[in-house]
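Summary: Need help interpreting a holo structure output

Steps to reproduce:
1. Submit the protein chain below together with the SMILES for flavin-adenine dinucleotide.
2. Request a joint structure prediction with the ligand placed.
3. Inspect the structure token block that comes back.

Expected: a single structure record containing both the chain and the bound molecule.
Actual: see attached output.

Input attached:
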Amino acid sequence: MPAKGEVTVVGAGLIGLFSAHYLLESGYAVTLLDAGAPGGGAARVNGGWVCPARSDPMPSWGVVRDGVRSLIPPYDGSFFLRPSALPRVAGYLARFLASSGSGRFARSWDDLDLLNRQTAPLVDELVEAGIIGDLQDEGFLILHSRLEDAEAAWASLLAVSQRGLAPAPDPVVGREALLELEPGLGDASQFGFVHRGDRWLDPSRLVDRLVESVVARGARLEQDTPALAVRQRGEQAEVATPRGVVAAEHVVIAAGAWSEELLRPLGVKGYVTPGKGYSFSVFPQYPPTHVLRLGDTHVGVTPMGDHARVVGMVEFDGTREGVRPERIDFMKRQARPWLSGIDWDASTEERVGPRPMTPDGKPLIGCVPGAERVVVATGHNMLGLTLGAATGTLVASLVARGPAAAVPAFDPMRFSRNPFGSG
Ligand SMILES: Cc1cc2nc3c(=O)[nH]c(=O)nc-3n(C[C@H](O)[C@H](O)[C@H](O)COP(=O)(O)OP(=O)(O)OC[C@H]3O[C@@H](n4cnc5c(N)ncnc54)[C@H](O)[C@@H]3O)c2cc1C
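--- attached output ---
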């Protein structure tokens, strides 16, 4: 089929690659530009959860409390603010606070469900197409030390199941039954239950498969080619790079936590801010067969074949890179009581990735007013893998139909029009 037109996609992370996939499906010719190599941002570091059922947006009073705690001794926490970064993240934080009330939280969650309702069928299609080969669905094991905490978590996931994105959780069981499910649990794991519906995979393998698949279908991949600026000139959308200008009919900005620099000159204030997440690998004596959620620690453990990936932390230190060993130590201290048979000193692949955070926890997806051939697809917070396929289909519609395909809930101009992004 002859190409409908040329599209340049800026960023070969999860969102850029999913966008390229669905643009090719729709008959466009695609050039992918990446500042480095595909998956070089948050994509390969992530926890691998395809989790539409637990897609609540991050802004909430609980997270605000954790952030404030991280500013006072002992300066620890899963949501970590470095005081020296405050001037750089103040714009994001002010809008984050405004989004943390219960009404805004509930509306944002409903909005995220617009994409999440498409996640499971799209992921099933990608499995059928052979692009996803390692999807696991044994369920998430939610662990607690006290029965009342396990019951409260169970009740909140029962409420989540009423959104229609996951079945009701299995009943709460005690330690003996938990050890039959997972022999490698530590003493803190006394009560828990399995929650099915969400699934997981190895995100690095997914990046590689998406790259292979889009390149095999004719996409051009230009690595080490950072976009310096994007603009629309007449019927053309142009990307300036150190190697010259790349011109096409459309451009998609999908540069993750680097997107804000490209958006501002176009008049889009997205407040996309890097929230660094950490992961590392351990080699448990009893490899887990479920994703493990460790009480209220905000640390999760994903089974990945012979090893398990420990993930967590949202750190705002004003940078996008750089592993801080004290953050890894904090995660290990948090995880240790919940698991047994792990040599924590033998961890490998200690990595950090910048999540593209937005103040209301929702992505920015839509055309740029006055430059409708430029489509924004960024700000996926902690959910880029989960929301990636649905975002890719929306990007393909926006390229084909322009603003007529817009979903107002993800309007990239919402913080430019209204200081606090509502409406
Ligand atoms: C520890 C951790 C755990 C996570 N766990 C999960 C999870 O379990 N499930 C889930 O759904 N999500 C998870 N996430 C979030 C998810 O990884 C992100 O939301 C997702 O990677 C965002 O995709 P993206 O394409 O916007 O950005 P990225 O994946 O970061 O990709 C951005 C790409 O743009 C490129 N780039 C940057 N600047 C330029 C430029 N100027 N020109 C060209 N290219 C450029 C970068 O090199 C990079 O390749 C996790 C994230 C972290 C850090």
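--- end attachment ---

Reviewer comment: The CA atoms of residues 79 and 314 lie 5 Å apart. The two ends are 41 Å apart (CA to CA).
Status: needs-info
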